[in-house]
Design goal:
2 copies of one chain form a homodimer. Chain A is an all-alpha fold. The first copy, chain A, contains 20 helices and no strands. Chain A starts with a helix and ends with a helix. At the A-B interface, α12, α13, α15, α16 and α19 of A face α12, α13, α15, α16 and α19 of B.
Chain lengths: ~700, ~700
Amino acid sequence: MDISNVLIPTGGIVALLFATFLFFKVRRQSPGNEKMQELSNAIREGAMAFLKSEYKVLIVFVVIVTGLLFAASFFEGSNMHWGTALAFVIGAILSAVAGNIGMRVATMSNARTAEGTKKSLSKGLIIAFSSGGVMGMCVVGLGVLGVFSSFVFFNSFIDLDLFTTTNILFGFGFGASSIALFARVGGGIYTKSADVGADLVGKVEAGIPEDDPRNPAVIADQVGDNVGDVAGMGADLFESYVDSIIATMALAAILGMFFISGNFDITQKIIPWFDSNYVFVQSELVRYIMLPLIVAGMGILSAIIGILVVILGGGKNIYGALRNSLFIATILTSILGGAATWYLLGRLEPVYAMVAGLVGGIIIGLSTEYFTSEKRKPAQSIAEASRTGPATVIIQGLQVGMISTIIPIIAVAAAMIFAYEVSGFYGIALSAVGMLSILGVSLATDCYGPVADNAQGIAEMAGMGTEVRERTEQLDAVGNTTAAMGKGFAIGSAAITSLALIFTFIMMAKSLGANINLSLEDPYLVSGLFIGAMLPFVFAALTMGAVGKAAYAMVEEVRYQFKKFKLLENDKNKPDYKRCVKISTNMALKKMILPSLMAVISPIVVGIVLKPTGLGGLLMGSITTGFLLAVFLANSGGAWDNAKKYVESGHLGGKGSDAHKATIIGDTVGDPCKDTSGPSLNILIKLMSIVSLVFLPLIIALT
Amino acid sequence: MDISNVLIPTGGIVALLFATFLFFKVRRQSPGNEKMQELSNAIREGAMAFLKSEYKVLIVFVVIVTGLLFAASFFEGSNMHWGTALAFVIGAILSAVAGNIGMRVATMSNARTAEGTKKSLSKGLIIAFSSGGVMGMCVVGLGVLGVFSSFVFFNSFIDLDLFTTTNILFGFGFGASSIALFARVGGGIYTKSADVGADLVGKVEAGIPEDDPRNPAVIADQVGDNVGDVAGMGADLFESYVDSIIATMALAAILGMFFISGNFDITQKIIPWFDSNYVFVQSELVRYIMLPLIVAGMGILSAIIGILVVILGGGKNIYGALRNSLFIATILTSILGGAATWYLLGRLEPVYAMVAGLVGGIIIGLSTEYFTSEKRKPAQSIAEASRTGPATVIIQGLQVGMISTIIPIIAVAAAMIFAYEVSGFYGIALSAVGMLSILGVSLATDCYGPVADNAQGIAEMAGMGTEVRERTEQLDAVGNTTAAMGKGFAIGSAAITSLALIFTFIMMAKSLGANINLSLEDPYLVSGLFIGAMLPFVFAALTMGAVGKAAYAMVEEVRYQFKKFKLLENDKNKPDYKRCVKISTNMALKKMILPSLMAVISPIVVGIVLKPTGLGGLLMGSITTGFLLAVFLANSGGAWDNAKKYVESGHLGGKGSDAHKATIIGDTVGDPCKDTSGPSLNILIKLMSIVSLVFLPLIIALT
């Protein structure tokens, strides 16, 4: 029995055990007084109501796609295996389970975090972060166990060859992608329609503060934080995580095919040292296939230690504690992953590739922090621009977002070239695995944000007194920064994962004998590139438009309730929160259908019309502008948000000044950019690649 | 003597003669009363002052680049000819001459147009349009004569072979590009800094109307229309025009090289019927080289007829007259160009390619009109969004701009594939020539806009009475629509011209024996693609930032003058217009240096670092996002502008309402998008391609 067969499931199980430990640790905490519990329950109910409605749509989608995949596997010459359909279902279920657990814990922790801050700031931090840790550990644990057991099932039980087995795993990735699509796009529309709707009537029209319990949309707003930033982010990164692992495994399997057929030109591109002189045994190939899972397992251990650093360390410097946990996990992963690689393969080159990805991810995160933090020049320059009104605030924000694309693009390009030079395409895929290996802890940091945000809202609504409010505000402020970094990380990892998938697509097309010419001198490829580059613009416009329409429905409802229940006139009258929750839910699910279908269908249509060559162009085009637009939209939005915070903290006239009003406009513009359209693009680029990989055999058969 | 040696120079000379005729026709008109002449003179002086200052910078640039090109031609093994340096100078001079004449006529015509509208609307139209015609005819005349005589000089007098001769012509294109860079980027910064600066203090702070003579920046604003929309647009399209012709000529010459060496794989890609069975004589090759110039010559005749339709037709439906002239010229060019091609080559396939370009250009123009016109849903949806404030106006505008990329992208992709299928790469280049062949009349339509705008300003400032003001307003409104269409046309032609240049680049690299692998499976190419795709974002951010800084300087100056001269308190006090003109000029020239250098240097640096392969990726990446961003920015800006006009025409509360204020914010955001950053991207993508072509031999020698 190979060591990987022990190490990998152990890593996955340890992750789930640690998640259980954190879960009970959080549940032990006091949920606060009755008022707080009431609010927390309302949020949980709203969140679960959204999930329930979402599942209804999802089940239809999953059943249809499973049926299609299953049918396609019987289509003469399609080369698709029925296992793809099964893997698709497993991937979808595991992603949904991880998201569901994450949401339950997050909505359980908000009141507990607020209550915890009564004792101390660090107590609040630990509760919020632990609940994020549950999500993080569930994602990595279920991801590793899911991919590993699917592989073992098809390879050992059904006795398929390695190539077919890894091919089937794309179905797993497609399942994860589908959930991510619904969670990110639907969640993104939900969260911003509630937020914008609540603000436009509450803050702007009625002049009541944010999180005022008289505002009927306030619970929907809090639900939105969980729906968008917990479930959406979790599903997004679950997808990246498993996709990067699967791409690496598939590249190794493709290498095996070409090596046996003696095509050393290609094997050397996949892994440079597999040249004609290489002496090669089948068991070695399995080790190359298993390596990404081993690295992921080492990442889990490192992430657990990273999480413990925060929990045991406590301390007043919250941001410092969170950042240190990331750094420690990064260093540990490099060491443990490096040792495992050396032990398994007797080589260090793949480690360099992996570390390149890790470093790239950190650089992107830091760049995001720089461009969006209120303590740095970019966001402050936006605040300064408020001197000449809202128009210049917008222009300055657009500019900051555009300039902020430089570092992420160069970081990904450099990581890609470096990884390729040391370990070929396999190295590029492995750099994505490396970047994502610390996901357990980085996702904990991400999910900490919305919990802290909710805790802040509950403290506000339950009237918990100045000291607690100040503390929850501190937690929330750090949460905004980590959320911004998390967004950058999510985008960067989506980009490098998509690159890995595209290179896998190219190799896969060659291994399936497709007549594919990927030269830029082919006008079909260039057409595909143009159309692919256009899709993110259209996708962003559709999701932005969806927020607008959903927010408008919310505005109407809030205005109506204000009038009907005389909420502003009489403090005793209570709004009907549930109606607002329902509106957000229904609008989000309705409005996500068009962009979602576009993402799934366009690669298949382009693949058939412009052939696999045009499809290659489409994928490369979509990842290029998808990446750029995602960074642009996320960073513009983040910088607008923090420019407003900068003014609110007393600069340029502070709250209520003209500068403040101008920056509020900027923030409102930025909201759908940074929380809906930008993050949804991560899904678009990965999903189109994975759809192409899944349907490639069919497309080849049809063209 | 071949027929083309007669036809081509005749076409060029006829164009210049017709320009002269139009010039005297305009000059004969009454320049109006003293007040009007005074204003017109102030605008002319301002415009000439800008040109003079610009020339100072330009001369330095041209001398340095000429020196470098000349020096490079002596660099051992660089394969560069000294003729490139000479062609560069000629191209630069001719572009500058065309721009200079255009500016002189435009600034001569504004008062005359205003005076003409006293008699009738159509009189005003004819004067404004004729002055645009001078610019249009100068551009095409000088373009055709310049390229033709350079070709004849190097081919017949210096006795160089066809390949070397067409290679040298890239220098001509580079010269034209350099002027375009300065005119478009500098002009774009100038025009918007003056406009935004004038509006922010005048309209917003002091509450005085637009074009109020008490506003010190009002003349700078009028000058800006000429600098940006006449000189900038003219130089931009001069560049596209000559670049598309040169690319087609070069492809034919490259074809000859490969045909002789028997590489029929490549010759068939360039022109499909040049297979191994083709019987080929050298004189035939010359005809293929001359074809684009012949088509251009036919286009000139068609454009003259198109212009005469407007001038002789007159009529009340101004927009209809302008559009008809474009349609008539399009149909005539197709017929005349088709006949010439049939006569010259005995084939019709190249005609199909040419017509594909023409049709593509018209579709893009109509799409732009749809997305920006105040009579259509997109702009109206932005106006509607003002119900919920400026933030939703911005979001809606971003969305409209993003969605508006669909048609132009598909039009260019479809034209490219169609042209390639019928006539190979040569066909793609010829489709660009086709699209631009009617430039004489389409540029007349473009330049009509700023003249009408100026006339409107002069009518306002000189207090010419309600009737005249209403008429000039009508002229101006149509001018806005044609300007938007012109922008779409400029972007579309830049995109297809750049594509032609990139395919020429690829063929040229192969013919020079470069080790170039343009497959998407090369990570260096993908890195180049990523970086290239990023550059338009950075370029747009830099130009947008330049407008912000320049506008801020203008705001300070206007505030200072209001205070110092007590302009608002006492009607007799006069502002110092010249100081404002000077500020715009200096800021524009200072702020265009960084983006300009970036455009020129990055292809050379990337070519050396990432090799010609990475450079290929860079070019393709930059054209992809450059095209998308340009459409997005131009159409968002145009739609915001017209959403404001829609409100001003009485909808949603009309002037002074909250809706109006919200749409003014949208318009201010859109100004630098549509008039600076968007159009500058046209230059970026063409310039980077032409720089790559010029320096390719050197880059190959260095790598």
